[in-house]
Amino acid sequence: MTTATLPKHYTDLCALMRTKGTLGSVAALVGWDQETYMPAGGAQARGEQSALLARLVHQHATDQKVGELIVKCEVDSELNNPESEHGANIREMRRDYDKATKLPSDLVANLAQAQSEAQDVWKSARANNDFESFVPALTKVMDLTKEKASCLKTDEHEELYDALLGEYEPGAKATEIAAVFEPLRDRLSAFIAELRDNGTAPRVDFLSREIPVEKQHAFGQEVTAAFGFDYSKGRLDTTTHPFCSGFGPGDTRMTTRYSLTNFPDAIGSTMHECGHGLYEQGIPKDGPFWGTPMTDSISLGIHESQSRMWENMVGRSKAFWTWALPLANKHFDGAFDDIDVETFTKAMNTATPSFIRVESDESTYNLHVMLRFELERAMLRNELAIKDLPEAWNAKFKDFLGLDVPNDATGCLQDVHWSFGLVGYFPTYSLGNLNAAQMWETINEQIPELNDQIARGEFGALLNWTREHIHQHGRRYTASEVIERATGKPLESDPLMRHLESRVRPAYGL
Amino acid sequence: MTTATLPKHYTDLCALMRTKGTLGSVAALVGWDQETYMPAGGAQARGEQSALLARLVHQHATDQKVGELIVKCEVDSELNNPESEHGANIREMRRDYDKATKLPSDLVANLAQAQSEAQDVWKSARANNDFESFVPALTKVMDLTKEKASCLKTDEHEELYDALLGEYEPGAKATEIAAVFEPLRDRLSAFIAELRDNGTAPRVDFLSREIPVEKQHAFGQEVTAAFGFDYSKGRLDTTTHPFCSGFGPGDTRMTTRYSLTNFPDAIGSTMHECGHGLYEQGIPKDGPFWGTPMTDSISLGIHESQSRMWENMVGRSKAFWTWALPLANKHFDGAFDDIDVETFTKAMNTATPSFIRVESDESTYNLHVMLRFELERAMLRNELAIKDLPEAWNAKFKDFLGLDVPNDATGCLQDVHWSFGLVGYFPTYSLGNLNAAQMWETINEQIPELNDQIARGEFGALLNWTREHIHQHGRRYTASEVIERATGKPLESDPLMRHLESRVRPAYGL
């Protein structure tokens, strides 16, 4: 693509976006360094650097010139064809600009202040299992978050929740999500109960065998390189909480974590972040449009679909371990030589209700998410008072997962998200699973030999499918559009249910 | 120190400097990452990030508001007392502001362009041993560098060279440097000749014993931690070319390099960078004045004095190896168990003429520097045509070091500096040695038990001396002032000569 024939108001706009993108990529590096290599003593100055960069990015995002150029592009009918890439780019720049300029700076400052305070309060509330002490701080954050949602609303009939959802999943509607979540919730609950009542949990003891960390790292690098992650344009480092950061053209950084006696957790995290990394590497960031929405990912739900697909659909399959178990044994001096692929795969597909979301398995995870979705939506609709959150949490937990929550620290105080005003964020985790499962069915139809390829350690056809149907488009289509274009139908819950049943039932002898 | 009683024009100015400093620290991180962890594919985008940050720093440095506030501070007689820290701070902010605003942006752009081109030409000229092909590019850079010097000149009688020198060594004069360099040059040349004619070179064979890199790294970390480098506020990583970057409050990053069969090079580089690191950690960067000249280092010559002191005065002494050799043997599984401290120390104090500056020893190094100083000063005075550089280089090389330069690649093409317009930079290397030697004599007078302390691995008194006399002052005093205040006399060449003779003569049995 060349900019030679494009009008100046558009190329000027793209140049401003490029500067904003470059500042954003510096901010990403600064954040990555904070988690990887920064000495502890640098924390305070790092806070100042990050705040300054955030301010500069915001200045560039809200620059009046940007607004003026967007208007010029919008009225340029030749350029602004909604069917074209440039038209989509302009549409998305408008969305970003409106979002960035809609919030009064007082509200932004008050919310930042309230979030910062609420996080401190949350930390000690969780440590002391004292929800009551968290109520005033959470109330303040939630009130300001509602105010923020009111500012972000695009039409007056829009549900407040949707305005917040749009920050993470542009175009998504709570009613549509609920329509997919509710049947899934009921079927998953029933499924979990059936496993508990009629299934036999597979053997998992060998998964906690000691594997030296550096050997786990080498194995993870070999697996992700085979997936197609380009290490000449990226890295894999170690952090407390794994993440992936797409810095910009030619630089994508993944992190993972290792435990001596929990090798599946490490390789799972590594494959998960690799999914994010492959998406970032597949977005066409090189060239004159870097920094514009065309070079950005669609939504968290689509991003998460890529990570979940490699972590779960690939990474827990028998085909994958047919290839990967001998490889692991090579790296780990035969640590699993006495375990056959069948037994190993079963151990990777357990489904056991537990209290903590981030420690839960592929099946029960979604129930944790849906519980939060229902509760935060109720809070935003003023149907649930914050003081009543623990009671509501515990009731739903019993209902969905069949467990009695022993205390709030293990219950509604476990996640940092709400203290941060992150409402509308949780559902994107399960949207990721739903998107991934629906794509996975289509991919297997279109690449019938995929299982055999995976069993030989060949992932090229799979990666190419995601490149073609997802990665290359940047933000050209919305998440719903991309799913419908790729799979031929809107998002449904059946594929995820079918996927989980096909993996977990055999593991439990059903 | 508090800002409560300070006038608003000063605190506002300091706040602007803080923003500039914070941007500078981000630029430093971006540069560090480029050398340490950035994947190769990130190079192009990194160039764009660095250029953007440089532009932002420059914008902040040349902001008209900064100029206006400096004027207000200058006429505030209560604040602007030249004897006070704040007065010094204002003086130095004026120096920086004038320097940053004096260069026309056209000249800056042309010079950047010419430097970039000249570097490419230099690379292939050096590879092909073809000086002639380098002449046009070097001529262009030198012409623009002279133009730059004319813009930077503070009075019309000033030597052009001094204007460039001031970039690296504020306040220094070429005539003063020449007055110290010339006697040193002659004595060093004679010393080298005497060693060659009458001395017996010490045994060095054991220095190339194979030492695993990770063991060298652990040893280097233990040595520098003992020197006083605070690893909770810094790091040591590996790069092709060692460097140290003071990112700002609480974050100082050193790098070194390892060779399996050249352990002295690695530990020398590590101690060298640690000297820079200790200086950076000793400058009071915490608090409200971060970003102002008070929180910056004085000059390259002073910075280099700190690195050379730890690398050479400490790191090549018998006292040091009395402590460090057993420590090395512990780390290296007794690799030097058969070598006594006397023999080891002698091997660390050789003086042998060679062609390449960066590979030369402590004594001959200064002759390489003085040769460059004389030649670049002559070029700037139009006393030496660029086409005649090889001939002049080779003649001086024979004269100073007694060797016939075999070709230009090994001669005047060996350094990147001139292609970069770095004129006035070289002398700071030897100024570092001179400063260090003069301080070292004073320190040993004031801490008579220093040798015994070092032999026990105790470096606290030494570090405290540098903290008190050098580090804590930031840019309050000029380099000459700081040396004179610390040692009681202006810079002389005798201490360096005495230092070298005291170390090298015994090694050569003289």
Search tags:
homodimer; 510 residues; mainly alpha; Neurolysin, domain 3; three-stranded mixed sheet; 20 helices
Could you walk me through the main structural features you see in this protein, from its secondary elements to its overall organization?
2 copies of one chain form a homodimer. Chain A has 510 residues and is mainly alpha-helical. The first copy, chain A, has a domain of 208 residues: Neurolysin, domain 3 (Orthogonal Bundle). In chain A, 62% of the residues lie in helices and 3% in strands. Chain A contains 20 helices and 3 strands. Chain A has a 3-stranded mixed sheet with strand order 1-3-2. In chain A, β2 and β3 form a beta hairpin. In chain A, α8 packs across α14 and α13 packs across α20. The longest helix of chain A has 29 residues. Chain A starts with 7 loop residues before the first helix and ends with a helix. The mean pLDDT of chain A is 96. At the A-B interface, α1, α2 and β1 of A face α1, α2 and β1 of B.
In short:
Chain A is mainly alpha-helical and 510 residues long.
Helix/strand/pairing class of chain A, anyone? mainly alpha
Task: Give average pLDDT of chain A, whole number.
Answer: 96
Could you list the spans of chain A in which at least 5 consecutive residues all have pLDDT below 50? none
Tally of helical segments of chain A: 20
CATH class of the domain at 205-341 and 437-507 in chain A: Mainly Alpha
